[in-house]
Amino acid sequence: MNGLFKTLIAGFTAKKLGGGCIGTIIVFIIVYWLLGKF
């Protein structure tokens, strides 16, 4: 998967699910890692 596309998806998901600064960062890292698996 394209790196930029993966970053945009992870960022959008983190913005929707994250509950604050730290939560958003954690969600971003998890989603980015999961997308990297596929």
From TrEMBL:
Ranges that cross the membrane: 17-35
Keywords per UniProt: Membrane, Transmembrane, Transmembrane helix
Entry superkingdom: Bacteria
Protein known as: ATP synthase F0 subunit B
Species name: Flavobacterium silvaticum
